[in-house]
Amino acid sequence: NLSRLAEEIVIWSSAQFAFVRMSDAWSTGSSIMPQKRNPDAAELVRAKSGRAIGSLVQLMTIMKGLPLAYSKDMQDDKLTTFEAFDSLDLSLQAMTGMIATMTPNKERMRASASSGFSTATDLADWLVRELNIPFREAHHITGAAVKAAETANIALPDLPLAELQKLEPRITDKVFAVLTVDASVASRKSYGGTAPERVREQVAAWKAKLG
């Protein structure tokens, strides 16, 4: 999990994503490009997982052929165990420092979340829920709506009601309430969903668990 989170930080802090800005304390500059802020700590944490897996394989190989008694082979299990523990301890400290000091770019995240017709599924769900249309048909209507928006070079929420009604006459202006990113996020209310109340529950639960 530390490796996966480190990979997310590497990607999110890249110029292409720019979702977060790393602090100077947990990043380094480039030897030839002074404007760069390299996520070195995240990259090193990501690499530590490889060493931990290597330690596990080494330990399992040491133990695999031993009889049910103590053997001198087991003297060599300490090095791999202690090395893995030290790597984990260092990685946890680094990850804690990185997350505590990084700055999120909310505007960039919102813009990215709104791109790519991300609320198309919400349109299909609305057609099923409000108009009792089978999902297969709703999927087809939504695909046509996305194509119309793409042709007009506009976002799905900006597609005129008249254009949507060409695809399904029963569509009303109430559909636009579900086509925003905020509405899409808030609608996922099942356990582990993205609705703000579910996220707050998880934050509170993990704070309590971790002390």
| CATH H-level homologous superfamily name of the largest domain | Fumarase/aspartase (Central domain)
Structural class, from secondary structure content? mainly alpha
Could you spell the SSE succession in H and E letters? HEHHEHHHHHH
The portion of residues assigned to helices is 55-70%
Short descriptors:
two-stranded antiparallel sheet, Ribonucleotide Reductase Protein R1, domain 1, 2 domains, mainly alpha, elongated, Fumarase C, Chain A, domain 2
If you had to describe this structure to a student in words, what would you say it looks like?
By secondary structure, the protein is mainly alpha-helical. Helix content is 61%, strand content 2%. It is built from nine helices and two strands; from the N terminus they run H-E-H-H-E-H-H-H-H-H-H. The protein has a two-stranded antiparallel sheet. Helix 1 packs antiparallel against helix 2 and helix 2 packs antiparallel against helix 3. The longest helix has 25 residues.
Task: Compile the SSE list and pairings.
Blueprint: H1 2-12, E1 20-21, H2 40-63, H3 77-101, E2 103-104, H4 106-114, H5 120-131, H6 135-152, H7 161-167, H8 181-187, H9 196-210
Helix pairs in contact: 1-2, 2-3, 5-6
In a nutshell, what does this entry contain?
The protein has about 210 residues and is an all-alpha fold.
